[in-house]
Amino acid sequence: MERQEKLMAIQERWQEKGYQKMTPIQALARPAILSGQSVYLQAATGSGKTLAYLLPLMQSVEANQQLQLLILAPSQELALQIAKVGRDWADIFGLKIQELVGGVNLKRQMEALKHKAEIMVATPGRLLQILEQSRKIKPHSIKFLVLDEADFLISQEHRADLLELHRRLPLGLQFVLVSATVDQDLLAEFQKETQEIQLIQAQGDTSQVQHHYIICHQRKKFDALRRLAHLPGMKALVFVKHIDEIDRAFDYLSEQGIACLRLYSQLHSTERKAALNQVHQGNFTFLLTTDLASRGLDIAEIPFVIHFDLATDLATYLHRSGRTGRMGQPGQVLSLVNEQEARDLQNILQPAKIDLIESIIYQGQLSRAAINSDPKDKGETDTNKSQPVKKLKRSPRQESAPPAPQKSKRKKERHKDRKNKGKPRKKDKASEG
């Protein structure tokens, strides 16, 4: 297929999928990548970053059965999602895509290498494992390296594997770093290797997303989720820090009859696949997940994101919250925090100039908290429906009634012939004698 025919085929496929114009990050990234420039793409989650780099790179890859494009992702789910998106377009260019991820039979993946895909999507650990056991992958032929969720790939968990892979790759690669936030240390590190890496930033339209926090003590968070489940249109990604907490929340909410799913890396692959199938069918109220397992989840029009545990930094908060309000859609972000965490959250979000709304759950609705409510009582208002109203109402009778007259103090009468009914004090007896 000639170049002009490919461009026409891309336009037709674009329209078939119901896409309108390119998103800002897609429009900015395309010419830079096609020119051979190494780039750092920064845009909000859900802004179309995957297609922003996939389509121009596919145009640069030759259909010659040699591995040329390597895409690394930090989680199985993200790697599989990237491969899925790529296959929707690969036939236009006559290219094959293979994914190498953990949790899948290693022998089958090694056998599939015989198909000689030009594009590989992999998690670092599984790719290293195969490189050490097989010579079917030829790293020297790779021309393009993509680090999707780059800030997470260089974290402590993946850094050693990433450095080892990088050591095996040829020099002179075209890099594409992708992230929802800008990591200046990461940018500086890659600028050492390549003469110039262009930072391309595109801010998505997040005006339809509201950010709330609900004062809620740790012991009452499960019950807060139960009450949130009954909000109109509730369907939420719930971010939880600890796996055992996910399991406890799952058991509690399931007992309450709430449609709940859980997803984390330690789950058996069959359980993960079953959960993902339910997610794509939309059969859930809450999906309880971790930061890592959630990367790569592509859920259309998710209306709520809930931070069960406070995000520790701005990047984590933005990654989580970017799951709602995609492509200008409305969304709600809720953080369950205590009083100190509420102050911490405001400090974390200050650089992003995100307006926070203190809210309560009242009569099955999300409502703004009373402005002058007592902070000491806030921990109870989120789980007691009547308390916020009690704080705002005063009895009419009490407002109009005059103050009650003060009772006059009763004089103490002491007579020698009258016994004191109280306990006699020794000192008094001594003075009387």
TrEMBL record:
SUPFAM superfamilies: P-loop containing nucleoside triphosphate hydrolases. The keyword Cell wall biogenesis/degradation does not apply. Keywords: ATP-binding, Helicase, Hydrolase, Nucleotide-binding. InterPro entries: DEAD/DEAH_box_helicase_dom, DEAD/DEAH_RhlB, DEAD_box_RNA_helicase, Helicase_ATP-bd, Helicase_C-like, P-loop_NTPase. One of its GO terms (molecular function) is hydrolase activity. Residues 374-383 have a biased composition (Basic and acidic residues). It comes from the Bacteria. GO terms for cellular component: cytosol. Signal peptide: none annotated. Residues 208-368 form the Helicase C-terminal domain. Residues 30-200 form the Helicase ATP-binding domain. Residues 371-433 are annotated as: Disordered. Residues 407-433 have a biased composition (Basic residues). It holds the Pfam family Helicase_C. Belongs to the DEAD box helicase family. This is Superfamily II DNA and RNA helicase.
